[in-house]
Specification:
2 copies of one chain form a homodimer.
Chain A: E1 7-12, H1 16-27, E2 32-38, H2 41-51, E3 55-58, H3 67-77, E4 82-87, H4 92-100, E5 105-108, H5 113-124, E6 129-130, H6 132-142, H7 154-164, H8 169-176, H9 180-194, H10 199-208
Parallel strand pairs in A: 1-2, 1-3, 3-4, 4-5, 5-6
The structure holds a DNA duplex (30 and 30 nucleotides).
Chain lengths: 215, 215
DNA sequence: CCACGCACTAGCCAAGTGGCTAATCCATAT
DNA sequence: ATATGGATTAGCCACTTGGCTAGTGCGTGG
């Protein structure tokens, strides 16, 4: 990829050594230009406003203002500046929050020089890069714990589905060609299995746990 | 990475040429062994049961049984067999469904030989690999359109939050040190703003849209 | 044949729900 | 001071909800 455009990079990390290391690595490439360094989130936000970098390498854990807040602020104020989270944590929550804040990449500090360079170039083109660990976190976050079925029988799930849609017992009865009494019976059974007292709670759990889907 | 263990791979794709191509590429590496080919999902499931491959390269669009269904069946019956989706589609929905079905990787068919090999090795170790486009799809899926607020006022959100927790009007009244009448007033207002008729529906929407979070 | 369990139905009752109307208190705008 | 509007409260009424008790058919196994 012979892209001769120089990518202007800013580093935000509260550890001198880390900034030093990254700065050194950036200097090894002729398509990167390190234009600024911030030692906390607030500083990063201000420097971005001033220098308008193409890409920010953002640590998550920093004093004064953390990386998530800074990312959010930057992405909001300067949508053309891409943020790559560069951290040593790869718990689900961090990945989640970082990307939610608007980061386009999530790398671990043990990433190879090669990976980091590619991630920066990808980010500059608006393409995402996730470390395998981060991808894993995203995936496993999405793949809910294997649907705690609550031992609901088919009919009960059928009724619960209609409850979630907001139907009341008479409506459900008609929809399933059953009597209201029967529906009440099933609803009671569902409530007891979900260990709640009202249909509203049952619906809340059903949606929350992905037991059934709306519409 | 001096792993001398041979990774047993199975291909599932309905196009001969594609299978041919992948087979050729696999032969170029001495740590891969192509142990079977399937031309549809059903065949893939059966072959997996018989051959117990380490990794399956799975196309999504196939006759008889599609890749998602096959992935689901395979992951359920043989958790040790990892599935990598290998397709030309990278719309959000496909990525979503593929990973939901239990795939550990999602690659596009234009991936480089190098990427593909790495993805297979990663999958074998239980590590995820996502093509940038797939990562992008996951991320943008996660970044919901900025929560349609429904113009709920603070008090209303407060009440809605308690409704979501399953509290009834008297409970909410006590909890907020207001009268039942007032709570009823707010509930009515919420129902009207959410354009629904029952609190159950309101709670369903609230959870579904992430208006408020449970507990 | 009969007991047993399962799916389904009826009806009663206390409590909760939601639409309505009306009223009070209070701060700000006129 | 007067009016306008937001927040709060009361009370009425028809309807829904959920717990309970008490059934009725129906198929399976003994």
């Amino acid at each position: 990829m012979a892209d001769k455009t120089i990518i202007r990079v800013l580093i935000a990390d509260d550890h001198n050594v880390v900034r030093e290391g990254i700065a050194g690595f950036l200097r090894a490439f002729d398509d990167f230009s390190l234009i600024g360094e911030a030692s906390n989130g607030k500083e990063a936000v201000m420097l971005v406003a001033e220098l308008k970098p193409d890409v920010v390498l953002m640590d998550l854990v920093m004093p004064i203002m953390d990386g998530v807040a800074a990312t959010q602020a930057i992405r909001q104020a300067h949508p053309t500046t891409q943020v790559i989270i560069l951290t040593s944590f790869h718990d689900e929550d961090s990945v989640q929050k970082g990307l939610q804040a608007g980061a386009i990449g999530y790398l671990l500090k043990n990433a190879s020089i090669h990976d980091m360079a590619n991630a920066i170039r990808a980010a500059h083109q608006g393409k995402a890069t996730l470390a395998p660990e981060a991808a894993q976190a995203l995936i496993s976050a999405r793949i809910r714990p294997p649907a705690p079925n609550f031992n609901l029988k088919d009919r009960e799930i059928e009724v619960l589905t209609l409850m979630v849609k907001g139907m009341n017992n008479p409506d459900i009865a008609e929809h399933l060609s059953l009597s209201r009494s029967t529906i009440k019976f099933y609803v009671s059974s569902i409530l007891s299995k979900l260990n709640v007292e009202t249909r509203t709670e049952a619906v809340a759990i059903a949606i929350d746990q992905g037991l059934v889907s709306r519409e």
